[in-house]
Amino acid sequence: MKIRIINTVVTATVSCVSLLLVMMSLGAQAQSVSTQSIKGRVPTASGNILIQGPGGLVIEDNVAVSLSATPAQFSVSPDTTDLILSDSDGDLGLTAEVDSAAGTLIWTSHQTPLTAEQVARAFGAEFAGRTLTVRASAPVTVSSRDGDPRSGTQTLHSATYTLHVPELPLPVTALLVGGAEFPVTSGFPTQGFVGGTFQVRLGDTVANNALYTWSTQSDWVSVDSQGRVSFMATPSSTHKTVVIKAIDKVGGGESIYTFTVNEWFIHQGSVAGTASQADSACAAQSGGNYAVPSWTRLSAGPGSARAGDGPLWNAWGSLSAYGAGWHDYSYWARETQGGNRYDVYLASGNVGNNPPASLWFITCSQSL
């Protein structure tokens, strides 16, 4: 009888253990299912990345580049304005980041890729007057605020941009002075006076001058929009060199003309005087060491030709053409001969020799 009771207890015990194991197994399975993540799709971007030029400005299609800039100064822009972000799972809070540092630009000229050496050189060194194209690619990472996965990276491209390289700036070819034309190698002007004016010519016609922006840093000189240079005041010995700049309004190329004035002239207006009065008037001038000039500083002699590196009349022509109180008449010179005193007729450059008591106009000069 006792044996039967023991068997019943054992059987019941085994049954309870089996039931407990089954329940534990089902609980573990349920827990495993509840903790698994549901994988979705990565957020993506479409559209074009952008290219930035020197200074970080985004470039546009069909525009001109600066001759002095280089292709190497262009890069992938971090700007994401043209990108369209999406997430097929509807995840929110989408943002994009362009890896500009890992971006690449492909430059071509007539469908031929530029070499590394060409990319490093200024546009004007090889491609003046030509058209180039450029296209970029870069990794773009798109992220979402929630969802799984929350980010994905893909390679996007830019549009293909056409960029125009301007022609090289026109060189300074001539100086137009009082009806004469001097080459730039003449060094004109080495002498000056208030009211003196001349025109710098670019290329083969002064009509080209309007295509440039003109400037100078010298405060005693002005230059207008047509390249006309005017002397407005007496320069000092430390500011006698002038740089005239002409910058191409389209391409930014720069042409430069530099000159140095070493001698400065003033006059006494309509006041005429004897030779001794001329000497006294010049000696009394303040602001320098003025004196009546040698006739060789006023003219190269009767019948001499105009010359950019010549004396006052030969370089500037008839002084009365500039106004500012000059006259087409004779001015005293320093030298004497046989009791007479030299004078120079500044309308033609002729040299005279007259009694010192004659009344001629007075000019004074000094070295700078």
Helical fraction equals 10-25%
Low-confidence stretches: 1-24, 26-37
Total strands = 25
Please give the domain count: 3
The number of helical segments is 6
Q: What's the overall geometry?
A: rod-shaped
Mean pLDDT: 90
Q: What distance lies between the first and last C-alpha atoms, to the nearest angstrom?
A: 144 Å
User: Beta-sheet strand percentage?
Assistant: 35-45%
Q: Nearest-angstrom radius of gyration?
A: 43 Å
Content-based structural category: alpha+beta
The major pleated sheet works out as:
7 strands, mixed
What tags apply to this protein structure?
368 residues, alpha+beta, Immunoglobulin-like, Mannose-Binding Protein A, Chain A, five-stranded antiparallel sheet, 6 helices, disordered N terminus, C-type_lectin-like/link_sf, CTDL_fold, signal
Characterization of this structure:
The protein is α+β, with helices and mostly antiparallel strands and 368 residues long. It folds into 3 domains: 44-164, no CATH class; 172-260, Sandwich (Immunoglobulin-like); 263-367, Mannose-Binding Protein A, subunit A (Mannose-Binding Protein A, Chain A). Helix content is 17%, strand content 36%. Strands 3, 6, 7, 8, 9, 10 and 11 form a 7-stranded mixed beta sheet that branches. A 5-stranded antiparallel beta sheet has the order 13-12-15-18-17, with no helix packed on it. Strand 12 (172-177) and strand 13 form a beta hairpin. The longest helix has 34 residues, at 2-35. The model is unreliable at 1-24 and 26-37 (pLDDT under 50). Residues 1-30 form the signal peptide. Keywords: Signal. It comes from Budvicia aquatica. Pfam families: Invasin_D4.
